[in-house]
């Protein structure tokens, strides 16, 4: 199992694999079992956001065990949280904020 940290700017925490964009993150989620996924929303001008990753989770059904939303975008965090809350299995722990 791996832990994935999606962010185009912040440094990657120890014990995580860094995905710098939504496409990299989706490739990791599609090919590996993920324990913890930590999502940023804004990933660069004109680039797909963290919401694209959440949409992939919903459409594929490939959920990690835990999802953290470390983004500084209040509206982006709300969009991702609500989509996850409505669609994720009850076994998935959704944290509406960054990792402690």
TrEMBL record:
Pfam families: cREC_REC. Residues 2-86 form the Cyclic-phosphate processing Receiver domain. It comes from the Bacteria. This is Cyclic-phosphate processing Receiver domain-containing protein. It comes from Paenibacillus phyllosphaerae.
